[in-house]
Specification:
By secondary structure, this protein is α+β, with helices and mostly antiparallel strands. It has helices at 3-13, 28-46, 72-75, 130-145, 153-167, and strands at residues 51-59, 68-71, 79-86, 90-93, 96-99, 103-111.
Length: 185
């Protein structure tokens, strides 16, 4: 889904959509804060349904060294959390990875999404799953309308967002186990 399509969904939900308007709405206050609110809600959802990423790195020690230490940001500036490192013996300590063996490190990690600001093009494509985007629509609508005390819509959308967020399954895959040769109980 593109940023423009997402904005259209939010504006349709809150009944502020105008397909002929340059920003898809006639309400300049909503338009001015839309990208910022989307970014905030997107980062919140991305911490629950994480964005998987992977990189392979060749690990070599300096002469006379028996380990190599790198910063998490050397893997990816958007790295949020290490999932697992395979192929070499390693340990994660705080914001550092210590490699105890040389070779190819297969680093599986979670990352922050590309941040959305006022300069982000409307053709930007979200990195989150569609189920996350459908939930985000309610979070963005709730945040956009929370200052509107004349109607209670902001609160209603925020409550719906929280309900949907609680039902969001953070898993990417279901684990399975295969036992070859049977099992004796």
């Amino acid at each position: 889904m593109t940023l423009e399509e997402f904005k259209g969904k939010v504006y349709q939900l809150i009944e502020e959509y105008n397909e002929n308007a340059e920003d898809l709405t006639d309400d300049q206050d909503l338009s001015a804060k839309m990208n910022s609110v989307i970014n905030n809600v997107m980062n919140e959802v991305a911490r629950i349904k994480k964005i998987d990423s992977y990189v392979a790195m060749n690990i070599e020690f300096e002469d006379g060294e028996n380990f190599r230490m790198i910063d998490l940001k050397d893997v990816d500036k958007k790295l949020y959390q290490i999932n697992v490192i395979r192929g070499v013996e390693s340990q994660v300590d705080g914001t550092k990875i210590i490699f105890f063996t040389e070779g190819k490190a297969h680093i599986f990690y979670y990352k922050y999404p590309v941040q959305i600001d006022e300069e982000t093009d409307d053709d930007y494509v979200f990195e989150l799953d569609n189920e996350c985007l459908e939930i985000m629509v309610y979070g963005v609508a709730g945040d956009l309308l929370k200052a509107d005390v004349s109607a209670n819509y902001g609160k209603l959308y925020s409550e719906r967002y929280e309900q949907m967020l609680q039902r969001l399954d953070p898993r990417r895959a279901m684990g399975s186990l295969y036992i070859d040769g049977g099992i004796s109980i």
